[in-house]
């Protein structure tokens, strides 16, 4: 985490050597307050100020957007020191800002704040969720390595692992998301027979089946059968994080995000993130520096604004979803509702109790009938918009079999429960009575 006080060279010790304008008391940096009287402040409090000192930006309450491609060095020796950090010649990374492909103030403030939600040592921002995932994987695998992963994964992640990394001689083996300790161990044993297991990649809950992965069991298996210092557990926490699931607490090493969803939360930006210990993120940062998958300053600024309301938005969406799912499950035109609040069996209920503090707001509704009934329902919705994606302030609905999962082979679709009568819904922060009225009138049309 970078201290923006240090970046400017305007810290107290330097005051004597800087011009009069900088000795203006308004420009004296204040230390960040992380606790009061021994009470550690909650992330929802720290989202409004952590990592940014208004006095370094003319007293501007909100951070300016730093639109610059490069940063001026104090002197040549400082420039050399920065590059030693950036290139890895000196451990610890860059001490300040160098060039905007590496980092910028808006991105660093947002990274510091995002990391707080999961008590992560470091956080990195990326231009999309897929940029985050691709950069993490590129940093961790070599030709001949094997990736063990839970299945199913987000379609683009499956493509990246199987087809893109496959071209470079990286292999994979998968286990079903709900697998037991024994099943996960058997998969890891098989992978060990194929080559060096470079990482274990998880996504929980799986989309669109909503099956939870037992992260604690995966960590136990990894610690029993593999070298924990060399084989990290990476998990895509887009659906429940950072509020309802904190995988670093359950044995995962790197958490990746599509911040486009709940964290961005307004369906108006595309961004990704990776959180974890510095040891794991240093090589990821090196690849990000090399290829430039970092988020731009404008989107980073919007993300900062989103993080201020993250807890409010996610809590309200989660409460709305609980009410809507209960109502839909009891409706005569409903076949079933697949929602984390209604665990499918005792094993899933057990995983939920051990890992999650909330059921999220994205679920699958199976209507009685088939594609015609599902389409009639979707076309009749008046508040909920017909669009893919999730985690925004507005309620969205889509038809996975005909949209996001159209390219999945029919047999695999059937195995995943992606049926023609299935509708995927992400509940937003609207008035819940209005949402129920909308679903009621749309179901009446079916
Ligand atoms: C959307 C999504 C992604 C990809 O994120 P982008 O921001 O669209 O690149 C990855 N994983 C999950 C679970 C997602 O929902």
Automatic annotation (TrEMBL):
<keyword id="KW-0456">Lyase</keyword>
<dbReference type="GO" id="GO:0018826">
    <property type="term" value="F:methionine gamma-lyase activity"/>
</dbReference>
<dbReference type="InterPro" id="IPR000277">
    <property type="entry name" value="Cys/Met-Metab_PyrdxlP-dep_enz"/>
</dbReference>
<dbReference type="GO" id="GO:0030170">
    <property type="term" value="F:pyridoxal phosphate binding"/>
</dbReference>
<dbReference type="GO" id="GO:0005737">
    <property type="term" value="C:cytoplasm"/>
</dbReference>
<dbReference type="InterPro" id="IPR015422">
    <property type="entry name" value="PyrdxlP-dep_Trfase_small"/>
</dbReference>
<keyword id="KW-0663">Pyridoxal phosphate</keyword>
<protein>
    <submittedName>
        <fullName>Methionine gamma-lyase</fullName>
        <ecNumber>4.4.1.11</ecNumber>
    </submittedName>
</protein>
<dbReference type="InterPro" id="IPR015421">
    <property type="entry name" value="PyrdxlP-dep_Trfase_major"/>
</dbReference>
<dbReference type="GO" id="GO:0019346">
    <property type="term" value="P:transsulfuration"/>
</dbReference>
<feature type="modified residue" description="N6-(pyridoxal phosphate)lysine">
    <location>
        <position position="261"/>
    </location>
</feature>
<dbReference type="Pfam" id="PF01053">
    <property type="entry name" value="Cys_Met_Meta_PP"/>
</dbReference>
<feature type="compositionally biased region" description="Basic and acidic residues">
    <location>
        <begin position="24"/>
        <end position="33"/>
    </location>
</feature>
<comment type="similarity">
    <text>Belongs to the trans-sulfuration enzymes family.</text>
</comment>
<dbReference type="InterPro" id="IPR015424">
    <property type="entry name" value="PyrdxlP-dep_Trfase"/>
</dbReference>
<feature type="region of interest" description="Disordered">
    <location>
        <begin position="1"/>
        <end position="37"/>
    </location>
</feature>
């Amino acid at each position: 985490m970078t201290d923006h006080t240090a970046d400017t060279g305007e810290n107290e010790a330097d005051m004597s050597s800087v011009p009069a304008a900088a000795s203006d008391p308004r420009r004296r940096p204040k230390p960040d307050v992380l606790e009061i009287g021994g009470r550690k402040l909650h992330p929802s409090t720290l989202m409004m100020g952590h990592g940014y000192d208004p006095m370094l930006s003319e007293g501007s309450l909100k951070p300016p957007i730093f639109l610059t491609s490069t940063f001026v060095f104090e002197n040549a020796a400082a420039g050399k020191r920065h590059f030693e950090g950036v290139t890895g010649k000196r451990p610890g990374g860059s001490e300040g800002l160098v060039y905007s492909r590496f980092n910028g103030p808006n991105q660093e403030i947002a990274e510091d704040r995002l990391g707080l939600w999961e008590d992560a040592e470091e956080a990195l921002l990326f231009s999309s969720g897929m940029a985050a995932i691709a950069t993490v994987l590129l940093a961790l695998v070599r030709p001949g390595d094997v990736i063990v992963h839970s299945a199913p994964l987000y379609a683009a992640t499956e493509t990246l692992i199987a087809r893109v990394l496959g071209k470079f001689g990286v292999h994979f083996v998968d286990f079903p998301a709900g697998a037991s300790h024994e099943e996960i161990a058997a998969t890891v044993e098989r992978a060990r027979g194929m080559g060096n297991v470079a990482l274990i990649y998880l996504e929980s809950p799986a989309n669109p089946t909503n099956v939870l992965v037992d992260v604690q069991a995966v960590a136990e298996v990894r610690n029993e059968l593999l070298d924990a210092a060399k084989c990290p557990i990476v998990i895509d926490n887009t659906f429940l994080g950072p509020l309802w699931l904190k995988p670093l607490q359950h044995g995962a090493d790197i958490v990746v995000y599509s911040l486009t969803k709940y964290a961005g939360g307004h369906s108006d930006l595309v961004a990704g993130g990776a959180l974890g210990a510095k040891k794991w993120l240093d090589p990821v940062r090196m690849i990000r520096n090399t290829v430039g998958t970092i988020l731009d300053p404008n989107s980073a600024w919007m993300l900062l604004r989103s993080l201020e309301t993250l807890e409010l938005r996610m809590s309200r969406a989660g409460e709305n979803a609980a009410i809507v799912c209960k109502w839909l499950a009891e409706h005569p035109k409903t076949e079933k509702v697949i929602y984390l609040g209604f665990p499918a069996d005792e094993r899933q209920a057990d995983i939920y109790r051990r890992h999650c503090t909330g059921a999220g707001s994205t679920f699958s509704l199976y209507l009685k009938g088939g594609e015609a009934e599902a389409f009639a329902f979707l076309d009749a919705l008046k508040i909920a918009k017909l669009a893919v994606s999730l985690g925004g302030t507005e309620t969205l609905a889509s038809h996975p079999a005909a949209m996001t999962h159209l390219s999945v082979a029919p047999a695999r679709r059937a195995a995943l429960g992606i049926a023609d009568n299935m509708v995927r819904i992400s509940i937003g922060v609207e008035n819940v009575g209005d949402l129920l009225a909308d679903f009621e009138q749309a179901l009446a049309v079916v």
